[in-house]
Amino acid sequence: MSREFFYFISPSLGLLVGLLIWAVYLGDYYYLFFCWGPIFFFCLRRVIVFYLLLRGWSSGSFYSSLGSFRSSAQTVSYEVVIIFIVFSISYFIARYRFREMGHFFYFLPLIFFLFPLFLAWLVSCLAESSRSPFDFSEGESELVSGFNTEYMGGFFSFVFIAEYSFILFLRAMTCFLFFGRGLVWVRILALVYYYILVRGAFPRLRFDWLMMMMWRIILPLVLGGFVFMLAFSVF
């Protein structure tokens, strides 16, 4: 009985999180203003890990559970990189609100100062949103959909609305944090083309390669940038 409850409630929870995350959107037309937008964003990302696990466990399928474990481990690992990148930008410009970060580099985008962190951000966004070549939510050998294998109809649409809402939000955040505020939708479309290009150009990696790239390559690079920005803000 408990599994049935979580089976029906988890897609709705994911849709709710996918819509709430736009509360910290940096556009000109916004309705809510958060003094600590990054903290709110990271808290919502933690909720996503729980509903991934709930969807796999409540489905009662081995393949769904396996897909949820892969997705949760991938999301937790690469969220560490995103957190350090956001706080590196905060220390660099001494601003702790997303909107102030976007206004600070209106004329001179941040990409010219933090290009290595920008590359790490792009890879982390692909891994966080489970896009190719990091789409390990889907099965590697069992040829099933992953944690949403047992869903259909409206619940299946809830799963993908929440997923693509978060993908679009990450693209918008990339534009505001690294490219300034001019021609936002043109840059978002350019990032859409980047997602499509990567999907067609690179094969799917192995899951252990993905985790090794994060812990051995990307995380040390981001930690070095974080320490440098922290020292820059102090001195």
What does this structure look like?
- It is a single chain.
- The N and C termini lie far apart (59 Å).
- The model has no long low-confidence stretch (mean pLDDT 78).
- The chain is mainly alpha-helical and 235 residues long.
- It has 8 helices and no strands.
- The protein is 71% helix and 0% strand.
- It has one domain.
Number of domains: 1
The SSE order reads HHHHHHHH
Low-confidence stretches: none
Rg, please? 18 Å
Shape: globular
Count the strands?
0
In short, what is this structure?
This protein is mainly α and 235 residues long.
Spell out the blueprint of helices and strands.
Blueprint lengths: L1 H19 L16 H22 L3 H32 L4 H7 L10 H14 L24 H26 L5 H18 L5 H28 L1
